[in-house]
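LOG
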Amino acid sequence: MEAYVRRIQRTGKSTYTVSLPKSWVERMGLKRFDEVQIVEFERGLMVFVGGLEADDEAEVAVGESAEPETVVRLFFSKYLDGYGKIKVQFNTASPQAIGMLKDCIRRWLVGVEIVEESSTQLVAQCLPMHDKLPVKTSIERMGGIASNMIGDAVTSFLGADEELAKEVLKRDDEVDRFYHFVVRQMNIAVKDQRILKSLNLSSPADCISYALAAKNIERAADHAENICRKVLSIRRAPRQDEKIVKLSAELVNVFRSSVNSLLIPDVFFADKTLRNAEQLAGRIEQLQAQPGYESSAHQTVLGSLKRVAEYAADLSETAINLSGRAVKVTA
């Protein structure tokens, strides 16, 4: 990336101008009377050509030997990378792969519409939604769903409630949808400072932080799913255990606080939540080692709860990093 130096010129009484480098203008294909965008940032201005659109079309070419799961992974990679239109082209008719891909798109992706389909081709349009679903709103919704999943997963375990366990499993798809959407938005924002500004993020480093936070929430939901799958495998109720009930209730509160710490720029709140999460993880680990909790079911549940507490600590640490990027921080 080349840097250009220009002097500010004054024309008239109230207008200042800066000339654009000829080589840059020619490379961008600009001509007289074309418009450019000048976007203001905290540390200066940037000049852009064009609108706030996602990257152009991407194509996934599928050979005869490709498995349907591979096709799904390749499509998702293009979605996460920020492409606005994705075309999947098959060498031969592949109804099974196309059917699986359509199902996965519906289950796990936000803002994708299938605009063209045949026996050998599928074209999807990814709608620009950065102004309709801000990243913090996505994080907040992910955290709310995951928190409720954790509490309900423990309830289903202690009551051997298979119907509740199945219902919790369905909610994991919604968490995955938000996770994929956040990663997509962050990838686009890293490449386009205008999108970054429209998302109310201050720097590309924020994109990394929010992507990591979304991953931690998604992993926490996976552990709620893990508990529910254990419920469906044992098909019998363990003894009611007040210690697990109390610890899980505390965990839900701490996890919610850790998500809130990402939304509230308060270093001290985030630090307090971090310490609470670490202490809770230690108490869960101690309970794992106590007599009466040796069974596979108890170890699975307590192990998952401990991991959720650790993810809560990671979320709070991310919040501290976000809040601590101010020029001056007082401890």
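LOG (cont.) second protein
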Amino acid sequence: MEDPKLLRKFSEILARKLKDFDVEWVVGPFTGGAIFAYDLASVMGVFSAYAEKEGERRVLRRGYDIENRRVAIVDDVLTTGKSLRETYSAVLEAGGIPVVCGVMIKRGEISLEVPLFFVLELNLPVFKPEDCPLCKAGIPLEIRGKGGL
């Protein structure tokens, strides 16, 4: 998200993969998914929206009229799939018709009722804290985008 030129390349690649789904709206979870949704929608020539957190769920506010519209649900990175599932539910609740999902980077697995497309797949190891080699070496964890630890 830091480099708009690189983001545009991801958007162009995913737009080609989604071209046959007659998408009218692209919706992503706020924040990273919202930025990606906007750029992808720009490439596709359609509308964009984002789903905001409201308690333990996501909702579409701000008057987005997606009722009976074909929606692509996107996110920047798929790890657990929680954000995509929450956004999927928010689209359904708002009357939208989810037709496809897409992510820039796929790190995990998810099962949805629609096809999932990705630009890049990364198979990175996941460790429990007690098994993490960095933790064992005393190297502090840095969580980008969440203010670090």
